[in-house]
Amino acid sequence: MKLDGGMILAGGEIYEQTEQERILEGLEEEISVTLSGEGLDRECVIKAADKFGEKIRRGEYDKIIRRAAKAAGERAEEYIAKAGAMMSREALEMRIKSELGNDIEEREIFPPFGVKRARIKLYPLGVLFHIAAGNMEGLPAFSVLEGLLTGNVNILKLPRADGGLTVEIFREMIKIESRLKNYVYIFDTPSTDIMAMEKMAAAANGIAVWGGDEAVRAVRRLAKPGVRLIEWGHKLGFAYISGYEDKERELAALAEHIISTRQLLCSSCQVIFIDTEDMGEVQKFSEEFLPYLERAGAKYPMNDIGAAAEISLKMYTDELETAIGAGDSRNICCKKIYRGKNCSVNACGGGLELSYMHGNCLVKPLRERDIVKVLRGSKEYLQTAGLICEKDRRERLETLLIKAGVCRVMGAGNMSEEIIGGSHDGEFGLRRYMRAIVTEARD
Question: What is this structure's pTM?
């Protein structure tokens, strides 16, 4: 069967979209049977993922991976290396150790003041309902894999742009390990089908939502009281420059990051802040940085004609509003735009905000003394800062960025690098998908 979107995966079988209502009607009963069983052994999940990763590296899923790489704007070889590494036994075991620690094993606790001793252990939440965003290829599969590692039954509502990719991935994983089949339900359901989403949410002990503010608000309305909401909202990344260790290398790395990610990830650089209050310095940097972006653009060409046209229209509108003194309510009204081939640098003022993306970044002044004050205005969107500075200033600037609310401080070229065993938005994802259970100690 050719998977091209509009399909359902349930019980390890593929169904047409017309079967959705029937499957949803029997969903709670099927889940209850699964939860009454022995549970999903973590080792079986690790083995299946590791074997899938090995097959990726050997080229057995070449079509799947090349589709994902093309959609993500990455070269297939890089995508294969990344996917293979993330699904390896070594990576998954490190995540479990880092995020769950000793709490995955049952242990006794001995409260003070003569209170009876007890046993404590982490258990799965039960059922996770994943509502995935479409800004990162492989994200839906990654989210479900986290749910499997924590022993949960997983219901996934696909993003619009998935095109059957995640169904294909888990169909293959279930072929490797059949015990996964009752722990994965995937629906290609539009967000407008509220009744279907309500049925999925009704079965869940926790809802993991990946997306922007509107998606998060919608899920809050959808969730019943007492259901754990696990919000992975959209974030904004930025770079902060206060001197250099190796200017040529560092600016080239930042430019390649901006172009290669198309600024579509939560960790992508939208704004470059310069440690100055002089707009002349901001404009000088913008003019100097443009050739770096152009060279990166030649290395990672952009082929999305529609996105390019939309960006050109936005830039023209903003320039027109600047000329007539109207400005943009989001403060994206640019003082000066430096245009390059399929990229631009926009020298302007204000705080953190979304850029035009696709190789079009904003450059703004921000003195060190104002870092916390300015960035706290965007505290709910802070995630990754790419720091370029002199070595003896790094620790002080890292501390200021963290105090402002940033969760990751990276080298500017490594802003979107996956740190296996690290946190996501300042949280350990696996721990959020589990609950700590206390039982009375046995004598």
Answer: 0.83
